[in-house]
Hints:
- This protein has about 375 residues and is mainly α.
- Helix 6 packs antiparallel against helix 7 (about 125-135), helix 10 (about 180-195) runs antiparallel to helix 11 and helix 12 runs antiparallel to helix 13.
- It has a three-stranded antiparallel sheet with strand order 2-1-3.
- Helix content is about 70%, strand content about 0%.
- The chain has helices at about 5-25, 40-50, 55-65, 70-85, 90-100, 105-125, 125-135, 145-155, 160-170, 180-195, 200-210, 215-230, 235-245, 250-260, 265-280, 285-295, 305-315, 315-320, 330-340, 375-380, and strands at about 345-350, 355, 370-375.
- The model is unreliable at about 25-35 (pLDDT under 50).
- The protein binds zinc ion.
Amino acid sequence: MSDLPLLTWALVLAALVLGILAGHFGWGKRWPGSLSKLHPDYLTGLDYLVTEQPDRALDMFLKLMDTNADTVETHFALGSLYRRRGEVERAIRIHQNLLAREELAPEHREQALLALAQDYLRAGVLDRAEGLFQQVSEVPRLRVSALDALRGVYERQHDWQQALGTYRQLARIKAAPAATVAAHYSCELAILALDKGEIDNASRLLRDAQAEATPFPRAALLRAQIAEREGQIDLAARLLRQALTESPTLLQEELPHLLKLVGPAQRDTILNELVAQAELHDFGELKRLVFAAIAADLATAAPLRASIEKVFSQDPTLQAVWNEGPAQSERIAREIGALLAHAEKYRCNECGFSGRSFYWHCPACHAWDSFEAYAIVKLR
Ligand SMILES: [Zn+2]
């Protein structure tokens, strides 16, 4: 997939080739009077570009660049463009070509190592990327970029301990991302501990997560799971209620679970509480609750009747359907429920990735806490 439209790419490449030429002939010198004075390798390179043989063209341009020590910046620009286009092998060749130069200045060598590490990361060769980022993180000037990239490598490897360690290194130089990121690492470690049956260790890690960021609904959710496993149902319900208060986006996933925990006798009490809570916030929150309830087949539950009517009659999109006759509200609710069952219910607000499952960590762009309830946004 290309990040740049083809025309833009061609123009940028042409500009770079001119840059190489300028370097080749010397900045500030007189421009050659005619094309016949151009270096034959340049013309051959252009031929290869025209005949769509990009690897041969790249060979030629690299050879041209080798003959001139002033083209380092052009190397970096070209390498970065190739990486952005997803042509990572070419980016790697360019940066390796730079590193092979014996006369390369130390700051350019460090920059080239960082660029090569980014190429490997983009190519998914994580172990090589890791080694190079570690090496570059020793350079004070590049330390923040290298450590932050290294944190990303550990996230992709699901090496949460190392990710947390790198986060702490960044925190020491005041360059760490939001505290919730560290809290998520502790939650990931708690999940691993739970899988191994290490309940005490998991509980300690969740306390760490909540000490790191408050409120932190994911930790409350995991503590609810532990309480349920231990048979402490009241505590589990309380913690789940807390998680839903802190993050109403979780309603679609967790409302049925909460109602199951409290049992039929407590159902209406809980629903009344959730309605009262949503009413305290904005209309969007009431809508979120109504849709979660409809998806959970609760359209006829007494505590929700007034809220469903309110949402249906006041929402600009649903109003038209509602005006067909409020008597049809149950049928409309059922139809919406059927739609929701197969809809993509969540979307990443960073990259637009959407799906039916909720993620704390976007599988596409690796942002944390970026998922929102999508179907509701779409119907708004
Ligand atoms: Zn995303």
